[in-house]
Write a structure and sequence with these properties.
Layout: H1 2-17, H2 22-44, H3 53-83, H4 87-91, H5 97-127, H6 138-163, H7 168-171, H8 174-179, H9 193-199, H10 203-215, H11 222-256
């Protein structure tokens, strides 16, 4: 546990020593939620809408931003170690791979929750949106989305580890691409049938469909709980698969010497 805390503490020290890093944690969140808050208010003022755009859209945006921050928190934590040429130093110590990843998960959890708290306060003050309208469903939804975000972050870190530092450009747009199939902005039924099949293998799609049903007035039924169960199982499968992928890349890089591209001498 001490080694996990040490990895997490290093990431926190990086933020403390250079507060501009906070922009990646809070600024994008603040801009996105404010932007979508005003868009929701504008749409709600048009026509004869019988429901609140703010309730339907802003809550989904806040939850998806939580996923995005968690994924990018994992990725940037790994990139910080690559950019600072510190990655090999970790594994010259007794630190194990699972401990390194766990430390990054701990930091992502902390920054993700801080960002989440900030935006729900902003949404409440600026737009009168109360995230608690989701009810008890909020807790399992956050847990599932967190696991899914961590999985994406580990996969992207594995790709960077395998393909080299320039592969970071693959990581930034991934949340945006997945949002197309996750039912964040619209119900999954809006998608063409082939794309709905893609949505069925994305845990977030079950979460957003469940949240949308609850905020639309449906009670917490067995069908909704079944959707969350499927989402949780998928998220855990992805998490295990992501770890195995990263472990495979790590061992491969050790065996063929590719890990030296992350050493100080290679920069």
């Amino acid at each position: 546990m001490a080694r996990i805390s040490a990895v997490s503490l290093r990431h926190i020290y990086l933020i403390r020593n250079n507060p501009s890093r906070l922009a990646s944690v809070f600024l994008w969140l603040l801009v996105d939620v404010t932007l979508w808050g005003f868009i929701s208010k504008y749409l709600g003022s048009m026509g004869q809408a019988t429901f609140s755009f703010t309730t339907v859209i802003l809550g989904a945006i806040i939850l998806w931003e939580f996923v995005t921050r968690v994924q990018q928190g994992m990725m940037t934590g790994f990139l910080e170690d690559v950019w600072s040429q510190n990655f090999i130093n970790y594994f010259a110590s007794p630190l194990r791979l699972i401990e390194y990843l766990s430390g990054s998960v701990l930091t992502s959890l902390a920054t993700g929750l801080l960002g989440f708290l900030m935006v729900i306060i902003v949404a409440a003050i600026a737009f009168g949106y109360n995230i608690l309208i989701i009810g008890i469903l909020l807790l399992p939804s956050l847990a599932i989305l967190f696991v899914f975000g961590i999985s994406m972050g580990v996969v992207v870190s594995g790709l960077i580890f395998r393909l080299g530092p320039t592969a970071e450009w693959l990581g930034w747009p991934i949340p945006l691409v997945l949002s197309l199939f996750s039912g964040v902005f619209y119900p999954v039924a809006t998608l063409p049938s082939p794309l709905q099949l893609v949505a069925k293998i994305i845990p977030a799609s079950y979460v957003f469909e469940s949240v949308r049903a609850v905020v639309s007035g449906q009670s917490l039924s067995a069908a909704i709980m079944a959707q969350l169960l499927i989402a949780a199982l998928l998220a855990l499968i992805y998490l295990a698969s992501a770890y195995l992928l990263f472990l495979h890349v790590y061992r491969r890089n050790l065996e063929n010497g590719s890990i030296v591209q992350f050493s100080a001498e290679s920069f």
